[in-house]
Amino acid sequence: MSSPRTKPVLATITHPKSDRCPILEAGVITPEILQQWRRACQKYLKNNKDRTADDLVSYVADEMREPILQKWYLASQTRIDALKLDPYITELGSLVLDKGWEGKMRRRVLAAKMEEGQSFADWAYDTQNINAILSQAAPAFAVDDQQLKNILDAGLIPVLQQDLDTEPVLSADLNAWIAEVKGRDDRLRFETGRIQGVINTNRELLHPKFKPKATLADRLTTPKPTLASRLTFPPGNTVQKPPTLTDSEKVLLDLHDGCRRCRQFYIGHRTPNCDGNFPDAATYRTLTQADAVAQAAARGKTLRVKREPTAAVRTSKNILDADYEESDSDHDGYVLPPLTVPHLYANVTLSGPSISEFPVPVRSLLDIGCPSIVISDKLVKQLGLRRYPLPAEEDNLSSLSDSPLSCREYVKLKVTSADGNWTSRIVRAKVNVGLCIPLILGMPFLSGEHIVIDSACRTAVDKRTGFDLLNNPTYPPRQWAPEWIVPPPTPKKPKRKSVSPEPIPLSSNVLLPVSVMLQVKNRIDDLDLQKFLKDEDIRLKTKHADVFPLRLPDNTADLPENILHREKLPTCPEKSGIMEANA
Q1: Where are the beta strands (DSSP E) in 209-357?
Q2: How far apart are CA 556 and CA 546, in angstroms?
Q3: Which label site among 112, 214, 324, 439 has the fewest CB atoms less than 10 Å from its CB?
Q4: Hey, what domains does the chain have and what are their CATH numbers?
Protein backbone atom coordinates (compact mmCIF):
# COMPACT_ATOMS: atom_id res chain seq x y z
CA MET A 1 0.00 0.00 0.00
CA SER A 2 1.50 3.33 -1.08
CA SER A 3 1.81 6.11 1.46
CA PRO A 4 -0.27 9.29 0.85
CA ARG A 5 1.49 12.10 -0.97
CA THR A 6 2.45 14.96 1.32
CA LYS A 7 2.49 18.58 0.25
CA PRO A 8 6.06 19.85 -0.23
CA VAL A 9 7.33 22.24 2.43
CA LEU A 10 8.24 25.65 1.06
CA ALA A 11 11.44 27.33 2.08
CA THR A 12 11.29 30.32 4.42
CA ILE A 13 13.60 33.28 4.99
CA THR A 14 14.62 34.24 8.51
CA HIS A 15 15.86 37.82 8.86
CA PRO A 16 15.27 39.07 12.43
CA LYS A 17 17.47 42.18 12.09
CA SER A 18 18.26 44.12 8.96
CA ASP A 19 22.01 44.34 9.76
CA ARG A 20 22.31 40.60 10.34
CA CYS A 21 22.86 38.05 7.60
CA PRO A 22 19.56 36.49 6.39
CA ILE A 23 19.03 32.71 6.55
CA LEU A 24 17.43 30.63 3.77
CA GLU A 25 15.74 27.70 5.52
CA ALA A 26 15.45 24.25 3.93
CA GLY A 27 12.50 23.65 1.59
CA VAL A 28 11.22 24.06 -1.93
CA ILE A 29 12.21 27.38 -3.53
CA THR A 30 9.68 29.09 -5.81
CA PRO A 31 10.23 32.21 -7.94
CA GLU A 32 8.51 34.29 -5.25
CA ILE A 33 10.77 32.91 -2.51
CA LEU A 34 13.84 33.48 -4.69
CA GLN A 35 12.75 37.11 -5.15
CA GLN A 36 12.35 37.48 -1.36
CA TRP A 37 15.87 36.05 -0.88
CA ARG A 38 17.24 38.66 -3.30
CA ARG A 39 15.52 41.48 -1.40
CA ALA A 40 16.75 40.16 1.96
CA CYS A 41 20.33 40.10 0.63
CA GLN A 42 20.01 43.64 -0.72
CA LYS A 43 18.58 44.83 2.59
CA TYR A 44 21.47 43.21 4.47
CA LEU A 45 23.99 44.92 2.16
CA LYS A 46 22.30 48.29 2.64
CA ASN A 47 22.11 48.20 6.46
CA ASN A 48 25.46 46.53 7.24
CA LYS A 49 28.30 48.98 6.60
CA ASP A 50 30.97 46.27 6.89
CA ARG A 51 29.68 44.42 3.83
CA THR A 52 30.44 45.28 0.22
CA ALA A 53 29.02 44.06 -3.07
CA ASP A 54 32.19 42.03 -3.65
CA ASP A 55 32.06 39.95 -0.45
CA LEU A 56 28.24 39.84 0.04
CA VAL A 57 27.78 36.46 -1.66
CA SER A 58 30.45 34.81 0.51
CA TYR A 59 28.34 35.59 3.60
CA VAL A 60 24.79 34.94 2.37
CA ALA A 61 25.63 31.75 0.44
CA ASP A 62 26.96 30.19 3.61
CA GLU A 63 23.50 30.65 5.25
CA MET A 64 21.62 28.35 2.84
CA ARG A 65 20.28 25.46 4.96
CA GLU A 66 19.07 23.19 2.14
CA PRO A 67 21.46 20.19 2.00
CA ILE A 68 21.75 20.12 -1.78
CA LEU A 69 22.50 23.86 -1.87
CA GLN A 70 25.16 23.46 0.78
CA LYS A 71 26.82 20.74 -1.30
CA TRP A 72 26.61 22.97 -4.38
CA TYR A 73 28.21 25.86 -2.50
CA LEU A 74 31.00 23.79 -0.94
CA ALA A 75 31.82 22.20 -4.30
CA SER A 76 32.50 25.64 -5.90
CA GLN A 77 32.96 27.91 -2.91
CA THR A 78 35.84 29.95 -4.33
CA ARG A 79 34.04 30.62 -7.61
CA ILE A 80 30.70 31.42 -5.95
CA ASP A 81 32.28 33.77 -3.37
CA ALA A 82 33.72 35.83 -6.21
CA LEU A 83 30.26 36.36 -7.82
CA LYS A 84 28.15 39.48 -7.48
CA LEU A 85 24.56 39.27 -6.20
CA ASP A 86 22.77 39.22 -9.59
CA PRO A 87 24.91 36.42 -11.15
CA TYR A 88 24.59 34.48 -7.90
CA ILE A 89 20.77 34.73 -7.93
CA THR A 90 20.67 33.79 -11.63
CA GLU A 91 22.81 30.67 -11.09
CA LEU A 92 20.83 29.74 -7.97
CA GLY A 93 17.55 30.08 -9.92
CA SER A 94 18.78 27.79 -12.70
CA LEU A 95 19.58 25.20 -10.03
CA VAL A 96 16.40 25.24 -7.89
CA LEU A 97 13.60 26.43 -10.22
CA ASP A 98 11.66 24.08 -12.48
CA LYS A 99 12.28 24.14 -16.17
CA GLY A 100 9.87 26.49 -17.97
CA TRP A 101 8.87 28.43 -14.86
CA GLU A 102 8.89 31.64 -16.86
CA GLY A 103 6.08 30.45 -19.14
CA LYS A 104 4.02 29.23 -16.18
CA MET A 105 4.25 32.59 -14.42
CA ARG A 106 3.44 34.46 -17.63
CA ARG A 107 0.29 32.34 -18.05
CA ARG A 108 -0.65 33.16 -14.45
CA VAL A 109 -0.48 36.84 -15.32
CA LEU A 110 -2.46 36.45 -18.55
CA ALA A 111 -5.17 34.31 -16.89
CA ALA A 112 -5.57 36.43 -13.75
CA LYS A 113 -9.23 36.59 -12.59
CA MET A 114 -10.60 38.40 -9.56
CA GLU A 115 -12.74 36.18 -7.32
CA GLU A 116 -16.02 37.12 -5.61
CA GLY A 117 -15.36 38.63 -2.19
CA GLN A 118 -11.69 39.29 -2.94
CA SER A 119 -10.26 42.76 -2.51
CA PHE A 120 -9.22 44.41 -5.76
CA ALA A 121 -6.06 45.85 -4.20
CA ASP A 122 -4.80 42.45 -2.99
CA TRP A 123 -5.49 40.81 -6.36
CA ALA A 124 -4.01 43.63 -8.45
CA TYR A 125 -0.83 43.93 -6.37
CA ASP A 126 -0.30 40.15 -6.42
CA THR A 127 -0.55 40.11 -10.21
CA GLN A 128 1.74 43.14 -10.48
CA ASN A 129 4.28 41.46 -8.19
CA ILE A 130 4.38 38.32 -10.38
CA ASN A 131 4.99 40.48 -13.44
CA ALA A 132 7.76 42.33 -11.56
CA ILE A 133 9.52 39.02 -10.86
CA LEU A 134 9.41 38.24 -14.58
CA SER A 135 10.73 41.72 -15.38
CA GLN A 136 13.84 41.11 -13.26
CA ALA A 137 14.50 37.39 -13.89
CA ALA A 138 13.07 36.90 -17.42
CA PRO A 139 12.26 40.25 -19.10
CA ALA A 140 11.25 38.53 -22.35
CA PHE A 141 8.25 36.92 -20.61
CA ALA A 142 6.99 40.04 -18.79
CA VAL A 143 4.19 42.30 -20.06
CA ASP A 144 4.29 46.08 -20.19
CA ASP A 145 2.09 48.40 -18.14
CA GLN A 146 -0.55 48.85 -20.85
CA GLN A 147 -0.95 45.10 -21.33
CA LEU A 148 -1.09 44.57 -17.56
CA LYS A 149 -3.79 47.23 -17.30
CA ASN A 150 -5.87 45.46 -19.96
CA ILE A 151 -5.42 42.12 -18.16
CA LEU A 152 -6.59 43.60 -14.85
CA ASP A 153 -9.55 45.30 -16.54
CA ALA A 154 -10.65 42.02 -18.18
CA GLY A 155 -10.35 40.04 -14.92
CA LEU A 156 -12.60 42.22 -12.76
CA ILE A 157 -15.77 40.84 -11.18
CA PRO A 158 -19.05 41.73 -13.03
CA VAL A 159 -20.19 44.30 -10.43
CA LEU A 160 -16.95 46.25 -10.67
CA GLN A 161 -16.92 46.00 -14.47
CA GLN A 162 -20.45 47.42 -14.61
CA ASP A 163 -19.39 50.34 -12.40
CA LEU A 164 -16.43 51.07 -14.69
CA ASP A 165 -18.69 50.86 -17.76
CA THR A 166 -21.05 53.42 -16.20
CA GLU A 167 -18.23 55.81 -15.26
CA PRO A 168 -14.96 54.88 -17.03
CA VAL A 169 -11.52 55.62 -15.55
CA LEU A 170 -9.69 57.91 -17.96
CA SER A 171 -6.22 57.63 -16.41
CA ALA A 172 -3.61 56.01 -18.68
CA ASP A 173 -1.00 55.43 -15.95
CA LEU A 174 -1.17 51.94 -14.44
CA ASN A 175 -0.65 52.95 -10.81
CA ALA A 176 -3.17 55.81 -11.06
CA TRP A 177 -5.69 53.46 -12.69
CA ILE A 178 -5.22 50.88 -9.90
CA ALA A 179 -5.71 53.57 -7.24
CA GLU A 180 -8.95 54.79 -8.88
CA VAL A 181 -10.38 51.28 -9.26
CA LYS A 182 -9.40 50.51 -5.66
CA GLY A 183 -11.54 53.45 -4.51
CA ARG A 184 -14.49 52.18 -6.57
CA ASP A 185 -14.08 48.69 -5.10
CA ASP A 186 -13.94 50.01 -1.54
CA ARG A 187 -17.16 51.98 -2.10
CA LEU A 188 -18.97 48.94 -3.54
CA ARG A 189 -17.80 46.74 -0.69
CA PHE A 190 -19.07 49.32 1.81
CA GLU A 191 -22.49 49.48 0.10
CA THR A 192 -22.70 45.69 0.01
CA GLY A 193 -21.96 45.47 3.73
CA ARG A 194 -24.55 48.14 4.53
CA ILE A 195 -27.25 46.39 2.48
CA GLN A 196 -26.43 43.08 4.12
CA GLY A 197 -26.83 44.72 7.51
CA VAL A 198 -30.30 46.00 6.52
CA ILE A 199 -31.26 42.52 5.31
CA ASN A 200 -30.16 40.97 8.59
CA THR A 201 -32.14 43.57 10.54
CA ASN A 202 -35.30 42.92 8.49
CA ARG A 203 -34.82 39.20 8.93
CA GLU A 204 -34.81 39.64 12.69
CA LEU A 205 -37.99 41.74 12.48
CA LEU A 206 -39.77 39.26 10.20
CA HIS A 207 -38.71 36.29 12.28
CA PRO A 208 -38.69 37.21 15.98
CA LYS A 209 -37.36 33.78 16.88
CA PHE A 210 -34.31 34.33 14.72
CA LYS A 211 -31.29 35.10 16.85
CA PRO A 212 -27.71 35.56 15.69
CA LYS A 213 -25.17 33.06 16.88
CA ALA A 214 -23.83 34.03 20.30
CA THR A 215 -20.15 34.79 20.62
CA LEU A 216 -17.81 32.82 22.85
CA ALA A 217 -17.77 35.63 25.44
CA ASP A 218 -21.59 35.68 25.60
CA ARG A 219 -21.75 31.92 26.03
CA LEU A 220 -19.20 32.04 28.85
CA THR A 221 -20.81 34.96 30.72
CA THR A 222 -24.47 33.90 30.32
CA PRO A 223 -25.52 31.91 33.43
CA LYS A 224 -27.11 28.53 32.92
CA PRO A 225 -30.81 28.19 33.89
CA THR A 226 -31.40 26.66 37.29
CA LEU A 227 -33.38 23.49 37.87
CA ALA A 228 -36.28 25.43 39.39
CA SER A 229 -36.58 27.71 36.37
CA ARG A 230 -36.52 24.78 33.99
CA LEU A 231 -39.25 23.02 35.97
CA THR A 232 -41.37 26.17 36.23
CA PHE A 233 -40.94 27.30 32.62
CA PRO A 234 -40.46 24.29 30.37
CA PRO A 235 -38.55 25.18 27.19
CA GLY A 236 -40.90 23.37 24.88
CA ASN A 237 -44.11 24.96 23.59
CA THR A 238 -47.00 22.57 24.10
CA VAL A 239 -49.47 24.64 22.04
CA GLN A 240 -49.96 23.13 18.60
CA LYS A 241 -50.09 25.41 15.57
CA PRO A 242 -53.36 25.65 13.65
CA PRO A 243 -53.65 24.33 10.09
CA THR A 244 -52.21 26.35 7.23
CA LEU A 245 -54.33 29.22 5.96
CA THR A 246 -56.37 28.51 2.86
CA ASP A 247 -56.42 30.88 -0.10
CA SER A 248 -59.87 32.18 0.87
CA GLU A 249 -58.71 32.87 4.45
CA LYS A 250 -55.64 34.75 3.21
CA VAL A 251 -57.80 36.92 0.93
CA LEU A 252 -60.25 37.56 3.77
CA LEU A 253 -57.48 38.63 6.17
CA ASP A 254 -55.93 40.93 3.58
CA LEU A 255 -59.29 42.57 2.80
CA HIS A 256 -60.03 43.36 6.46
CA ASP A 257 -56.62 44.51 7.78
CA GLY A 258 -55.94 41.12 9.34
CA CYS A 259 -52.77 39.45 10.57
CA ARG A 260 -51.82 36.07 9.16
CA ARG A 261 -49.98 35.13 12.36
CA CYS A 262 -52.49 35.79 15.16
CA ARG A 263 -55.33 35.58 12.57
CA GLN A 264 -57.32 38.55 13.88
CA PHE A 265 -59.22 41.17 11.85
CA TYR A 266 -58.69 44.94 12.28
CA ILE A 267 -55.98 44.24 14.86
CA GLY A 268 -53.83 47.24 13.91
CA HIS A 269 -50.70 45.42 12.73
CA ARG A 270 -49.50 43.06 10.04
CA THR A 271 -47.57 39.79 10.08
CA PRO A 272 -44.02 41.30 10.13
CA ASN A 273 -44.90 43.39 13.22
CA CYS A 274 -46.95 40.77 15.08
CA ASP A 275 -45.79 40.08 18.65
CA GLY A 276 -48.42 37.43 19.37
CA ASN A 277 -48.49 33.70 18.80
CA PHE A 278 -50.47 31.42 16.53
CA PRO A 279 -53.96 30.50 17.77
CA ASP A 280 -54.41 27.14 19.47
CA ALA A 281 -55.26 24.35 17.05
CA ALA A 282 -57.72 22.83 19.53
CA THR A 283 -60.04 25.86 19.46
CA TYR A 284 -59.29 27.16 15.98
CA ARG A 285 -61.96 27.17 13.28
CA THR A 286 -61.96 28.36 9.69
CA LEU A 287 -62.25 32.14 9.28
CA THR A 288 -65.41 33.49 7.62
CA GLN A 289 -66.90 36.84 6.69
CA ALA A 290 -69.01 36.73 9.84
CA ASP A 291 -65.84 36.72 11.96
CA ALA A 292 -64.60 39.84 10.19
CA VAL A 293 -67.93 41.62 10.75
CA ALA A 294 -68.03 40.67 14.44
CA GLN A 295 -64.44 41.75 15.14
CA ALA A 296 -64.94 45.03 13.26
CA ALA A 297 -67.98 45.83 15.43
CA ALA A 298 -66.14 44.82 18.63
CA ARG A 299 -63.18 47.10 17.85
CA GLY A 300 -65.32 50.00 16.63
CA LYS A 301 -64.05 49.79 13.07
CA THR A 302 -66.03 50.54 9.93
CA LEU A 303 -66.37 47.45 7.78
CA ARG A 304 -64.82 48.39 4.47
CA VAL A 305 -63.42 46.62 1.47
CA LYS A 306 -59.85 47.26 0.44
CA ARG A 307 -59.01 48.08 -3.14
CA GLU A 308 -56.21 45.54 -3.76
CA PRO A 309 -55.40 43.65 -6.95
CA THR A 310 -55.91 40.24 -5.35
CA ALA A 311 -57.31 37.27 -7.18
CA ALA A 312 -60.50 37.05 -5.14
CA VAL A 313 -61.32 40.73 -5.58
CA ARG A 314 -60.60 40.90 -9.30
CA THR A 315 -62.59 37.77 -10.14
CA SER A 316 -65.78 39.78 -10.18
CA LYS A 317 -65.38 43.02 -12.05
CA ASN A 318 -68.59 44.49 -10.66
CA ILE A 319 -67.57 44.03 -7.03
CA LEU A 320 -64.67 46.50 -7.04
CA ASP A 321 -65.09 49.14 -9.68
CA ALA A 322 -62.72 52.06 -9.77
CA ASP A 323 -65.61 54.42 -10.63
CA TYR A 324 -67.33 54.00 -7.25
CA GLU A 325 -67.49 57.00 -5.02
CA GLU A 326 -64.62 57.29 -2.55
CA SER A 327 -65.28 56.93 1.17
CA ASP A 328 -65.35 59.94 3.49
CA SER A 329 -62.65 58.27 5.61
CA ASP A 330 -59.17 59.68 5.77
CA HIS A 331 -57.79 56.52 4.22
CA ASP A 332 -57.66 56.72 0.44
CA GLY A 333 -57.29 52.94 0.06
CA TYR A 334 -60.95 52.19 0.88
CA VAL A 335 -64.22 52.30 -1.11
CA LEU A 336 -67.84 51.82 -0.15
CA PRO A 337 -69.47 48.41 -0.65
CA PRO A 338 -70.78 47.89 -4.22
CA LEU A 339 -74.36 48.55 -5.19
CA THR A 340 -74.76 45.27 -7.10
CA VAL A 341 -73.32 41.80 -6.51
CA PRO A 342 -73.75 38.94 -9.02
CA HIS A 343 -76.03 36.02 -8.19
CA LEU A 344 -74.62 32.70 -7.05
CA TYR A 345 -75.02 30.13 -9.83
CA ALA A 346 -74.06 26.47 -9.45
CA ASN A 347 -73.40 24.28 -12.47
CA VAL A 348 -75.22 20.98 -11.86
CA THR A 349 -76.57 18.08 -13.92
CA LEU A 350 -80.05 16.49 -13.90
CA SER A 351 -81.36 13.22 -15.29
CA GLY A 352 -84.76 11.70 -15.95
CA PRO A 353 -86.68 9.00 -17.84
CA SER A 354 -86.31 10.85 -21.15
CA ILE A 355 -82.52 11.03 -20.83
CA SER A 356 -80.87 7.89 -22.21
CA GLU A 357 -77.28 9.07 -22.49
CA PHE A 358 -75.50 11.86 -20.64
CA PRO A 359 -77.22 14.00 -17.95
CA VAL A 360 -78.46 17.48 -18.87
CA PRO A 361 -76.22 20.34 -17.63
CA VAL A 362 -78.21 23.04 -15.82
CA ARG A 363 -77.15 26.46 -14.49
CA SER A 364 -79.07 26.62 -11.19
CA LEU A 365 -79.57 29.65 -8.94
CA LEU A 366 -78.72 29.36 -5.23
CA ASP A 367 -81.33 31.57 -3.51
CA ILE A 368 -81.29 31.76 0.27
CA GLY A 369 -84.42 33.95 0.18
CA CYS A 370 -86.60 31.48 -1.74
CA PRO A 371 -88.71 29.20 0.55
CA SER A 372 -89.02 26.43 -2.07
CA ILE A 373 -87.22 24.59 -4.84
CA VAL A 374 -88.66 25.73 -8.19
CA ILE A 375 -88.11 24.15 -11.61
CA SER A 376 -89.32 25.39 -14.98
CA ASP A 377 -91.99 23.47 -16.89
CA LYS A 378 -89.75 23.36 -19.98
CA LEU A 379 -86.98 21.54 -18.10
CA VAL A 380 -89.48 19.05 -16.64
CA LYS A 381 -90.68 18.17 -20.15
CA GLN A 382 -87.08 17.76 -21.35
CA LEU A 383 -86.25 15.38 -18.49
CA GLY A 384 -89.57 13.51 -18.65
CA LEU A 385 -90.11 13.65 -14.88
CA ARG A 386 -93.28 12.32 -13.32
CA ARG A 387 -95.60 15.07 -12.08
CA TYR A 388 -97.47 15.01 -8.81
CA PRO A 389 -100.39 17.28 -7.82
CA LEU A 390 -99.31 20.04 -5.48
CA PRO A 391 -101.43 20.66 -2.36
CA ALA A 392 -103.34 23.92 -2.50
CA GLU A 393 -101.68 25.35 0.59
CA GLU A 394 -98.24 24.94 -1.04
CA ASP A 395 -99.14 27.28 -3.92
CA ASN A 396 -97.74 30.21 -1.97
CA LEU A 397 -94.89 31.62 -4.07
CA SER A 398 -94.78 35.30 -4.96
CA SER A 399 -92.33 37.59 -6.73
CA LEU A 400 -91.31 41.17 -6.14
CA SER A 401 -94.31 42.22 -8.22
CA ASP A 402 -97.90 41.86 -7.12
CA SER A 403 -98.57 38.87 -9.42
CA PRO A 404 -98.10 35.47 -7.68
CA LEU A 405 -96.09 32.55 -9.12
CA SER A 406 -98.66 29.88 -9.78
CA CYS A 407 -97.59 26.25 -9.15
CA ARG A 408 -99.98 23.30 -9.50
CA GLU A 409 -97.55 20.35 -9.63
CA TYR A 410 -94.24 19.19 -8.21
CA VAL A 411 -91.61 16.64 -9.27
CA LYS A 412 -88.93 14.56 -7.54
CA LEU A 413 -85.31 14.81 -8.66
CA LYS A 414 -81.65 14.43 -7.67
CA VAL A 415 -79.08 17.18 -8.14
CA THR A 416 -75.53 16.18 -9.13
CA SER A 417 -72.50 18.43 -9.35
CA ALA A 418 -70.96 19.14 -12.75
CA ASP A 419 -67.99 16.87 -12.09
CA GLY A 420 -70.18 14.06 -10.72
CA ASN A 421 -68.44 13.92 -7.33
CA TRP A 422 -71.40 15.17 -5.28
CA THR A 423 -75.07 14.09 -5.40
CA SER A 424 -77.96 15.29 -3.28
CA ARG A 425 -80.77 13.28 -1.83
CA ILE A 426 -84.17 13.15 -3.55
CA VAL A 427 -85.76 16.59 -3.32
CA ARG A 428 -89.18 17.91 -4.34
CA ALA A 429 -89.38 20.91 -6.67
CA LYS A 430 -92.43 22.97 -7.59
CA VAL A 431 -93.16 23.29 -11.31
CA ASN A 432 -93.74 26.79 -12.64
CA VAL A 433 -94.73 27.61 -16.19
CA GLY A 434 -92.72 30.44 -17.74
CA LEU A 435 -89.96 30.47 -15.11
CA CYS A 436 -87.05 32.54 -16.41
CA ILE A 437 -84.45 30.32 -14.67
CA PRO A 438 -84.29 26.55 -15.27
CA LEU A 439 -83.85 25.69 -11.59
CA ILE A 440 -83.92 27.63 -8.31
CA LEU A 441 -82.35 25.84 -5.33
CA GLY A 442 -84.00 27.52 -2.37
CA MET A 443 -84.03 27.06 1.38
CA PRO A 444 -85.28 23.42 1.46
CA PHE A 445 -82.33 22.31 -0.67
CA LEU A 446 -79.73 24.41 1.17
CA SER A 447 -80.88 23.37 4.65
CA GLY A 448 -81.51 19.73 3.79
CA GLU A 449 -78.07 19.30 2.19
CA HIS A 450 -76.25 21.36 4.89
CA ILE A 451 -75.03 23.93 2.36
CA VAL A 452 -73.32 26.98 3.93
CA ILE A 453 -73.09 30.03 1.64
CA ASP A 454 -70.29 32.58 2.11
CA SER A 455 -71.17 35.61 -0.01
CA ALA A 456 -67.81 37.32 0.47
CA CYS A 457 -65.77 34.32 -0.61
CA ARG A 458 -68.52 33.20 -3.03
CA THR A 459 -68.59 29.61 -1.80
CA ALA A 460 -71.37 27.10 -1.15
CA VAL A 461 -69.82 24.35 0.93
CA ASP A 462 -71.40 21.13 2.18
CA LYS A 463 -70.52 21.02 5.90
CA ARG A 464 -70.49 17.23 5.92
CA THR A 465 -68.04 16.66 3.07
CA GLY A 466 -66.46 20.09 2.46
CA PHE A 467 -67.51 20.03 -1.21
CA ASP A 468 -67.97 23.47 -2.82
CA LEU A 469 -70.81 23.62 -5.34
CA LEU A 470 -69.70 26.97 -6.76
CA ASN A 471 -66.04 26.07 -7.17
CA ASN A 472 -65.69 22.45 -8.18
CA PRO A 473 -62.19 21.13 -7.55
CA THR A 474 -60.04 20.57 -10.59
CA TYR A 475 -58.47 17.19 -11.00
CA PRO A 476 -55.29 16.45 -12.92
CA PRO A 477 -55.73 14.63 -16.21
CA ARG A 478 -55.64 10.90 -15.97
CA GLN A 479 -52.28 9.40 -16.69
CA TRP A 480 -52.72 6.44 -18.97
CA ALA A 481 -50.22 3.66 -19.01
CA PRO A 482 -48.05 3.51 -22.13
CA GLU A 483 -48.98 1.09 -24.88
CA TRP A 484 -47.75 -2.45 -24.43
CA ILE A 485 -44.76 -3.21 -26.57
CA VAL A 486 -44.01 -6.85 -27.23
CA PRO A 487 -40.50 -7.42 -25.99
CA PRO A 488 -38.03 -9.14 -28.31
CA PRO A 489 -37.51 -12.85 -27.79
CA THR A 490 -35.03 -13.72 -25.15
CA PRO A 491 -31.92 -15.20 -26.74
CA LYS A 492 -31.13 -18.71 -25.74
CA LYS A 493 -28.41 -19.09 -23.27
CA PRO A 494 -25.34 -20.78 -24.70
CA LYS A 495 -24.77 -24.22 -23.39
CA ARG A 496 -21.78 -24.40 -21.25
CA LYS A 497 -19.34 -27.10 -22.13
CA SER A 498 -18.97 -29.62 -19.43
CA VAL A 499 -15.50 -29.64 -18.06
CA SER A 500 -14.42 -33.08 -17.03
CA PRO A 501 -12.36 -33.13 -13.91
CA GLU A 502 -8.70 -33.76 -14.35
CA PRO A 503 -7.73 -37.38 -13.70
CA ILE A 504 -6.15 -38.01 -10.40
CA PRO A 505 -2.60 -39.28 -10.90
CA LEU A 506 -2.11 -42.81 -9.68
CA SER A 507 0.74 -43.82 -7.51
CA SER A 508 2.01 -47.12 -6.29
CA ASN A 509 0.96 -46.32 -2.78
CA VAL A 510 -2.77 -45.85 -3.67
CA LEU A 511 -5.10 -48.87 -3.88
CA LEU A 512 -8.17 -48.50 -6.11
CA PRO A 513 -11.51 -50.06 -5.15
CA VAL A 514 -12.35 -53.56 -6.42
CA SER A 515 -15.16 -52.37 -8.70
CA VAL A 516 -12.83 -49.93 -10.42
CA MET A 517 -10.19 -52.64 -10.94
CA LEU A 518 -12.81 -54.96 -12.41
CA GLN A 519 -13.96 -52.35 -14.90
CA VAL A 520 -10.37 -51.69 -15.91
CA LYS A 521 -9.79 -55.42 -16.49
CA ASN A 522 -12.95 -55.79 -18.58
CA ARG A 523 -12.00 -52.80 -20.67
CA ILE A 524 -8.55 -54.21 -21.33
CA ASP A 525 -10.09 -57.54 -22.40
CA ASP A 526 -12.46 -55.78 -24.80
CA LEU A 527 -9.65 -53.82 -26.38
CA ASP A 528 -7.55 -57.00 -26.73
CA LEU A 529 -10.43 -58.84 -28.42
CA GLN A 530 -11.04 -55.98 -30.85
CA LYS A 531 -7.37 -55.95 -31.79
CA PHE A 532 -7.39 -59.73 -32.34
CA LEU A 533 -10.47 -59.62 -34.59
CA LYS A 534 -9.01 -56.76 -36.61
CA ASP A 535 -5.76 -58.67 -37.16
CA GLU A 536 -7.63 -61.83 -38.21
CA ASP A 537 -9.72 -59.83 -40.66
CA ILE A 538 -6.62 -58.43 -42.32
CA ARG A 539 -4.92 -61.85 -42.40
CA LEU A 540 -7.86 -63.68 -44.02
CA LYS A 541 -8.43 -60.95 -46.61
CA THR A 542 -4.78 -61.06 -47.56
CA LYS A 543 -4.73 -64.89 -47.78
CA HIS A 544 -7.87 -65.11 -49.89
CA ALA A 545 -7.38 -62.05 -52.00
CA ASP A 546 -8.92 -63.79 -55.03
CA VAL A 547 -12.12 -64.36 -53.14
CA PHE A 548 -12.24 -60.86 -51.70
CA PRO A 549 -11.70 -58.43 -54.61
CA LEU A 550 -11.06 -54.80 -53.93
CA ARG A 551 -14.24 -53.75 -55.83
CA LEU A 552 -17.34 -55.82 -56.60
CA PRO A 553 -18.87 -55.57 -60.12
CA ASP A 554 -21.80 -53.23 -60.66
CA ASN A 555 -23.96 -55.95 -62.33
CA THR A 556 -23.84 -59.68 -63.12
CA ALA A 557 -24.39 -59.40 -66.90
CA ASP A 558 -20.79 -60.11 -67.78
CA LEU A 559 -20.32 -63.05 -65.40
CA PRO A 560 -19.89 -66.49 -66.98
CA GLU A 561 -22.83 -68.86 -66.70
CA ASN A 562 -21.12 -72.19 -67.59
CA ILE A 563 -19.06 -72.54 -64.45
CA LEU A 564 -20.38 -75.10 -62.05
CA HIS A 565 -19.35 -75.66 -58.48
CA ARG A 566 -19.65 -78.85 -56.61
CA GLU A 567 -20.06 -78.54 -52.92
CA LYS A 568 -19.19 -81.62 -50.90
CA LEU A 569 -20.29 -81.45 -47.36
CA PRO A 570 -18.07 -83.13 -44.82
CA THR A 571 -19.55 -86.08 -43.02
CA CYS A 572 -19.89 -86.15 -39.27
CA PRO A 573 -18.58 -89.40 -37.70
CA GLU A 574 -21.15 -89.30 -34.94
CA LYS A 575 -24.08 -88.88 -37.30
CA SER A 576 -22.72 -91.66 -39.58
CA GLY A 577 -22.59 -94.10 -36.65
CA ILE A 578 -26.12 -93.28 -35.66
CA MET A 579 -27.41 -93.77 -39.21
CA GLU A 580 -25.67 -97.14 -39.52
CA ALA A 581 -27.11 -98.27 -36.23
CA ASN A 582 -30.58 -97.38 -37.35
CA ALA A 583 -30.14 -99.27 -40.56
Answers
A1: 305-306, 334-335, 345-350
A2: 17
A3: 214
A4: 13-96 (no CATH), 101-195 (no CATH), 345-462 (2.40.70.10)
Is 201 a residue whose pLDDT tops 80? no
Task: Judge whether residue 181 has pLDDT over 70.
Answer: yes
Measured over the CA atoms of residue 520, residue 523, residue 529 and residue 530, the dihedral's sign is negative
Query: Which residues, in sequence order, are CB contacts of 157 under 8 Å at separation 6+?
Result: 114, 115, 116
Residues in the chain: 583
State pTM to two decimals: 0.35
- Inter-residue contact 410 to 388 (CB < 8 Å): yes
The rounded distance, in Å, linking the Cα atoms of 296 and 69 is: 91
Q: Per-residue b/e over 300-338, b at no fewer than 16 CB within 10 Å? A: ebeebbebeeeebbeeeeebbeeeeeeeeeeeeebbeee
CA-CA distance, 179 to 125, in Å (whole number)? Answer: 11
Helix (H) or strand (E) holding 360: strand 360-366
- Please write the tens of the pLDDT for every residue from 369-393: 888 999 999 999 999 999 999 988 8
Cα angle value 396/401/407 (rounded, 5°):
30
Residues 6+ apart with CB under 8 A from 45: 51, 52, 53, 56, 85
Query: Distance between CA 523 and CA 417 in Å, rounded?
Result: 94
The rounded distance, in Å, linking the Cα atoms of 83 and 69 is 16
Pick from 36, 190, 174: nearest CA to 119: 190
